[in-house]
Structure formats: C-alpha cells, structure tokens
C-alpha cells in the first residue's frame, strides 16, 4: 500500500539510490541519529531488545519498574542500582563498531552535518567523530556533579567509585554525585535544542539503532524536510520511518546495512582501514 507518492529526491527507494545520491554530490549535509542499537555489536546491551536488553535483565536489581534505574526521583532514594549498571557500562571497556567508524568517515570526508546520539557510551568520540559534530542528546559519562549543590566532582575519583561499583558523594555537601547523563525527569542538555535545526538543513538523514521511543529525541526525524531522504538502519521498523516518499528501510543488523552502503559507495577499504586503526 503506497500512501506516499513516488520519491521526490531519490530515483527509487533503495540503498543503491541513496549511494548514488551521495556519489552525485547532492548529499553534503548528512545528519546522523543514533541510539543504543549501534552499540550492541560492541557488547553494550540496549534497553529494549527482547532477552538481551537491559530492561529484561534488571530483575536482580529489584527495581519497581525497569526505567527506575534512570529515574531522577528514584535515584535520590536508591542510587545503588544505577551504580551497579554504571560499572558495567562505563566507557573505556568497549571498542567502536563499523557503524561508528562509518560516521567518522563521513566527517573525514566533510559530509557530516551533525551527529545526534542518545548514547552515553562515548563510542562516537572513540571512533574519531570530531567533538563539534556530536550532540550527546542525553549527556555522557564525561563529567559529573552533585545533584544537590551542583558542584563538579573530579573525574579520577568518579572513575574509582564507578569501577568499584559504589556511590560517590559530594566533597562539599555530601549530596549524591551523578554523571551528567539525562535521567527521566530531567531536561536535555542545551546543545540539543540549540543544534536541532541542523536536521532541517540536512540533505540526507541516517537513523541507526534506535527504537525512537524517547522524546524529544524521537521527534528529530520529523524535523527533516519532507523531500529529504531518510534511511533507517535498524532491526525493526520504528517511528514514522517508511511513511514519507523518500524513506528507505534497511532492516537488520545496522553493521550489515552500513557495510552494504559503504560497498555501494566504494568506501569499503577506507572504512576498514579507519576501523582497524582505532
Ligand atoms: P532502545 O530503546 O533500547 O532501542 C534500541 C533499538 O535498536 C531497537 O529498535 C533495536 O531493535 C535496535 N537494535 C538493537 N541492536 C541492533 C543492531 N545490531 N542493529 C540494528 N538495530 C539494532 O534504545 P534507544 O537508544 O532507542 O533508547 C533511548 C535510550 C537508551 C537512550 O536514553 C540511551 O541513553 C539509552 N541507552 C544507551 C546505551 C549506550 O549508550 N550504548 C545503552 C543502553 C541504553
């Protein structure tokens, strides 16, 4: 059932057509949006995949509901479950995936307009995407502060606490220390609203490994212009992807879809060199 009309920008709705769009030089402002699914191949569980996702494996933490581990009001009363999880997810233990490397390659070629990530694993930085091209929409483990007096807490102390799996407390007021990642009930970093207009400037949008269920991030793909091709690399169809005339769905493991796109672009060797050297 084709509720949409024929494609407005692409010759057809396929990855081949997307590769042609890039090769022809018509896609020079590529906006990429990522979620936990881009990092599962690195060994970091996502939230919602059945069986392997964090939410289905949190029973041992005795949470009233799965999302509580990232809920600010729950954290105030019981920070321990979050720190059990933080010990597992802490950056530095994981290697970027081929999909992360592809985003860095786009940046190297001057084609990356902006990367919006929901992830807190810092793997896009590790892959070599320049900091000024990254919007960490849900913050990251890079910095941390007291949730009461907001005083920053030293990185080295934080690292020691997280690796031991215990709860750090503020040196000034003894308040709880939390990494600057966005919990449910908290506002997103200012960079998100300041930079979201880049999506409207995009001539191609790549959406990789996200369930598009967490707002306001989930509304970003809607901000792309109607005729801008949007490509979804995901295990499942999500959000409104597929509803527009130039949407392309590449369903399956994102690394497979990204390898296929790189192949169509003639970038396979470059991509592998970049990835191997990380
Ligand atoms: P999610 O809701 O868990 O969804 C993940 C999506 O990715 C699902 O649609 C999966 O089907 C899909 N997926 C899983 N593996 C693959 C794969 N190999 N290839 C393609 N698709 C795959 O995660 P979202 O990011 O959408 O949810 C937003 C939350 C999750 C954000 O606030 C993140 O901070 C949070 N999170 C981040 C990490 C991380 O930093 N790596 C890990 C777990 C959760």
From TrEMBL:
Zn(2+) binds at residues 146, 149, 170, 173. Its cofactor is Zn(2+). Keywords: Metal-binding, NAD, Transferase, Zinc. The active site is at residue 138. Residues 8-268 form the Deacetylase sirtuin-type domain. Belongs to the sirtuin family. Class I subfamily. This is NAD-dependent protein deacetylase hst2-1. The chain holds residues 9 to 286 of 444 of the full protein.
């Amino acid at each position: 059932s084709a509720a949409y009309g024929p494609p407005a920008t692409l010759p057809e709705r396929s990855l081949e057509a997307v590769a042609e769009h890039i090769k022809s030089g018509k896609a020079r402002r590529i906006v990429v949006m990522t979620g936990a699914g881009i990092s599962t191949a690195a060994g970091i569980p996502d939230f919602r995949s059945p069986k392997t996702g964090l939410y289905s494996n949190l029973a041992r933490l005795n949470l009233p509901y799965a999302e509580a581990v990232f809920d600010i009001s729950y954290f105030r009363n019981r920070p321990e479950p979050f720190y059990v999880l933080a010990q597992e997810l802490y950056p530095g233990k994981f290697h970027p995936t081929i999909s992360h490397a592809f985003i860095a390659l786009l940046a190297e070629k001057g084609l990356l307009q902006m990367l919006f990530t929901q992830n807190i694993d810092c793997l896009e930085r590790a892959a070599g995407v320049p900091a000024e091209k990254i919007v960490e929409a849900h913050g990251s483990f890079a910095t941390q502060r007291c949730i009461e007096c907001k005083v920053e807490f030293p990185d080295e102390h934080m690292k020691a606490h997280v690796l031991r799996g215990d709860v750090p407390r503020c040196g000034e007021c003894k308040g709880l220390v939390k990494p600057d990642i966005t919990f449910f009930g908290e506002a997103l970093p200012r960079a998100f609203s300041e930079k979201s207009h880049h999506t409207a400037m995009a001539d191609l949008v790549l959406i990789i490994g996200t369930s598009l269920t967490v707002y306001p991030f989930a509304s970003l793909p809607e901000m792309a212009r109607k005729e801008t091709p949007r490509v979804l690399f995901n295990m499942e169809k999500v959000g409104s992807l597929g509803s527009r005339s130039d949407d392309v769905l590449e369903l399956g493991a994102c690394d497979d879809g990204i390898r296929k796109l790189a192949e169509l672009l003639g970038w396979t060797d470059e991509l592998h060199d970049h990835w191997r050297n990380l």
